[in-house]
Write a structure and sequence with these properties.
This protein has about 450 residues and is α/β, with parallel strands linked by helices. It has twelve helices and 20 strands. A five-stranded parallel β-sheet has the order 2-1-3-4-5, sandwiched between helices. It binds iron/sulfur cluster. Iron/sulfur cluster binds next to helix 5. Catalyzes the methylthiolation of an aspartic acid residue of ribosomal protein uS12.
């Protein structure tokens, strides 16, 4: 018996303006086609009509408005995109019934608006790609990218040159992706970007409706909503701007994991200045103390660069002393390497390789000792652990809330053969070394 496929919604497209707009229209249609949508050559057969507008000249704007009017009269279900997206108010004033207005190059938004206006019926024959997308990570944890690019210009980094300034994803699109990932089995969301604490600075005035609530594009609001969706939410690449104080109570409430990955890179004020690091302020140690008072189990992970041009022995010693005070839980260190195109390469005071090596060994020894002491203090405690792998001889490997996959430590379990990947269990910690813990799951 032949299998009857569900009928795909049909999308009509009116593309106005220059060849760049035409390429945008093609890109939107390619994505919709790969999502399973069918195309309609006329208004009558379309479930929704996209009008890709041009706003280059007044005459082009008038032509765009006329095209929107025609699509509304002929079909009624219209999404507007393209250059005139900047004038959403004018469009809405004249055509209050348009379903959505998105701007030029906002592919994710316009495709999202089509999905909302004419949802694809689920079918395993059409939807070859799972709703949550294709993943390279195991099913139980997923990286969630919330923005692209970066507004800073750190002297050792070429990311802004490669990826441009920060562009935030709209919060409802992020939350929809998070929900799909969780439906597909994700237990732990790892929030990533170049600068998570700057999320939303470019779209702050554009709250989006999600589950009947307006969500402001801001790290705190997004973290709170993500905490309602996934059992574990972990924040990476956070800079210690003052507003980061607001996410600590969410950790105390158990909404997100008490974990912050803050790439400090150095502590000496003069090195931080020549690195041009963001949120480089003197009171960080005090803030860490306050954060730990609110969320005593807060784990702070960081990375540091040693041997940056101009780093003196006094700067390096300042960093070691700072680490003694800061008592960071997890630390990675790198020897400075000139990356082609980075501003730091022309700075005076290159540090000889053997000095970099020696400083690297010293910082690793210091941070390993701090880590070992912190892990020793966990012996005898009961911790929540997510299971990454179950072995054949009754053992399993997992991670506590203090451990991000790949970069932090692990928890090795005995008598855990009954557990499955992705289970979150309570574990009594029996032993520890420099980086890892050992324990047994509680019944
Ligand atoms: S190091 Fe990070 S914050 Fe600095 S410019 Fe590069 S991406 Fe931006």
């Amino acid at each position: 018996m032949a299998t009857k496929l569900p009928e795909a919604p049909r999308v009509g497209m009116v593309s106005l303006g220059c060849p760049k707009n035409l390429v945008d229209s093609e890109r939107i249609l390619t994505k919709l086609r790969s999502d399973g949508y069918a195309m309609s050559p006329d208004y009558a057969g379309a479930d929704v009509v996209l009008v890709n507008t041009c706003g280059f000249l007044d005459s082009a704007k008038e032509e765009s408005l006329e095209a929107i009017g025609e699509a509304i009269a002929e079909n009624g279900r219209v999404i507007v995109t393209g250059c005139m997206g900047k004038e959403a108010e004018t469009i809405r004033a004249r055509f209050p019934n348009v379903l959505a207005v998105t701007g030029a190059h906002q592919y994710e938004e316009v495709v999202g608006a089509v999905h909302e206006a004419a949802p694809m019926p689920p079918s395993p024959f059409v939807n070859l790609v799972p709703d949550a997308g294709l993943k390279l990570t195991p099913r139980h944890y997923s990286y969630l990218k919330i923005s692209e690019g970066c507004n800073h210009r750190c002297a050792f980094c070429i990311i802004p040159a490669l990826r441009g300034d920060l562009v935030s994803r709209r919060p409802d699109a992020i939350l929809r992706e998070a929900e799909k990932l969780v439906e597909a089995g994700t237990k732990e969301l790892l929030v990533i970007s170049q600068d998570t604490s700057a999320y939303g600075v470019d779209i702050r005035k554009e709250p989006r409706l999600w589950k009947g609530r307006d969500v402001i594009p801001h790290m705190t609001d997004l973290a709170r909503e993500l905490g309602r969706i996934a059992p574990w939410v972990r924040l990476h690449y956070v800079y210690p701007y003052p507003h980061v104080d607001q996410v600590i109570p969410l950790m105390a409430e158990g909404l997100i994991l008490p974990y912050l990955d803050i790439p400090f890179q150095h502590a000496s004020p003069s090195v931080l200045r020549s690195m041009k690091r963001p949120a480089n302020e003197a009171k960080v140690l005090e803030r860490l103390k306050k954060w730990r008072e609110i969320a005593p189990d807060l784990t702070i992970r960081s990375t540091f660069v040693v041997g940056f041009p101009g780093e003196t022995e006094a700067d390096f010693q300042y960093l070691l002393d700072w680490l003694d005070e800061a008592q960071l839980d997890r630390v990675g260190a790198f020897r400075f390497e000139p990356v082609e195109g980075a501003a730091a390469n022309t700075l005076p005071g290159a540090v000889p390789e053997e000095v970099k090596e020696e400083r690297y060994a010293r910082i690793m020894a210091k941070t390993a000792a701090i880590s070992a002491a912190k892990l020793q203090a966990r012996i005898g405690r009961t911790l929540e652990v997510i299971i990454d792998e179950v072995g054949e001889e009754g053992g399993a490997t997992g991670r506590s809330q203090a451990d991000a996959p790949e970069i932090d430590g692990e928890v090795f379990l005995r008598d855990a053969g009954h557990l499955g990947q992705g289970d979150i269990v309570r574990v009594e910690i029996e032993d520890a070394d420099e980086h890892d813990l050992y324990g047994v799951p509680l019944a």
